[in-house]
Structure formats: C-alpha cells, structure tokens
Amino acid sequence: MKQFKNLVRPYLIWSFILIVVPLFLIVLYSVTTGGNSLVNIQFTGENFKKIFEPVYMNVFIRSFKLGAITTGVCLVVGYMLAYVISRYSEKVQNILILAVTIPTWINMLLRTYAWISLLSDNGIINSLLMLLGLDPVTMMYTDFSVIIGLVCDLLPFMVIPIHTSLAKMDHSLIEAAYDLGAKPLTAFWKVTFKLSIPGVVNGTIMVFLLSISSFVIPKLLGGGQYVLIGNLIEEQFISVGDWNFGSAISMLLAVAILIMISIMKKIDPDENGGA
Questions:
Q1: What are phi and psi for residue 33, nearest 5 degrees?
Q2: CA distances, 41 to each of 9, 31, 37, 254, 258 (Å)
Q3: pTM above 0.70?
Q4: Ordered domains of the chain (ranges, CATH)
C-alpha cells in the first residue's frame, strides 16, 4: 500500500500543477479585474455582464447556429455510417472504425489547409468545374466552408459513440419485432434507434461542444470574419489581453460542458450504450 502511494504521489502533484492551479486561476480571473496581473485585483461581476452585450451575444448566437448545423449534419451522416459499419462482422468493423479514425491522426492544421486548397477560388474543385465548362463557385469564407471543415473534423466523434451503442445491441430484438409483424422502418425506429439513443446523445453533445469552441477552422476557412466562442476566447487572451473577460467566457463554456456531461450521465448512467 505504501509503495502504491509513492507511485501515485507524483501523478497527484502534476495533476494539481497542470489542472487544479490553471482552473483556479481561470475562476479567479473571471470574477476579478486588473488584467493579467494578480496585484491589486478587485472582485466584480462585470466580466459576466459584459457577455450579454449585443456584440458578444451575436458571437454566441452564430456559434450555436453553426454548432447546431454541424451537429445535425454529423448526426445524419454519422448515424448512417455507424449503422452500415455495425452490419459487418466484428473483424471488418474494427477495420472500418480504424479507417474512420485515421484522419484524426493527421494534424488538424494540415487537414484545414487541405480544405483551403480544395475550396478556394482557384482550388481543385473550381478547377474541375471550369474543365467541365461550369462557372466557378465561391466557397471560401462562407458558412459552407466553415461547416464543411467542422463536419469533417468532428465526424469521428459522432460515429464512434453511435457505433458503440449499435454494436452492443441485441439483434434478436429486431428479429422479434419482425416476428410480431413490424415493417423494417418501424423495427428500426422502435428498436434500433431507441437502443442507440445513448450513443446519439453522447455524440451530439461532444460534436456540439467541440464545434462551438473550435477556433482554428473558423479562423482559416472563415477568413477571420467568422468569430465563434473559441475565437473570442483566443482573441481575449492573445490579442486584446483581457484575461478577465476571456476567463469569464471560458467559465461559461465550462459550465455548459458540465451540464451536458450530467445529461449524458442521466441518459446512460452506466455508459453501457445499447447493452
């Protein structure tokens, strides 16, 4: 037991330094004024009130709008992909899930620049359109380019939870539904989809939270004009230097994440998916 404590102690120390201390500073900055200095700080609630100013509320509205669209697209595409994968043998499923996760091994910045080369006015897609005698289409610096980048980056986070629920599902329940006279669509909706709801909820929450807090993709594919919550936080810390307001936004996002996690726990408390 003593040896175990000796092994755990360094981990606890590093966790305290790298997790607890930064979180404490973010909480402290969010309720104080005085910039990035801890000297002569004053406690205040103005940082949170500032969030409700129209210019910042527009950022939140745009973030939730693009986040909702991204989540919806990922849900439709991800569910179909996860469902198809779950129909194969276990060995093939492992290979297909690996194929889904392989793009995440590549640096996100490189993947985003790849989309720039595809979607730009002189990019690959417009070059192919002109070869076919069609007019080029402006795709960069639009909602379309940002959503495409977010969907391709976050799709695995939707596919894997849904696939986990579908893979654990008892297929004899579907056979029983057919025996009772249910049509394929009815059996899918009443049995398959209901049993996969924990995976759907987990994937939806993860994709939504990651999409509204993303800052690299909106900055590059949106040309700097698509400021989302992640971009706003980055701007406050790096460009503006208002650490207090940036911390307040971060705290608001952290509370949203905690609420979402509690919802996930209530829907699937044992994390058993469709089992």
A1: -120, 165
A2: 33, 10, 8, 23, 28
A3: yes
A4: 55-267 (1.10.3720.10)
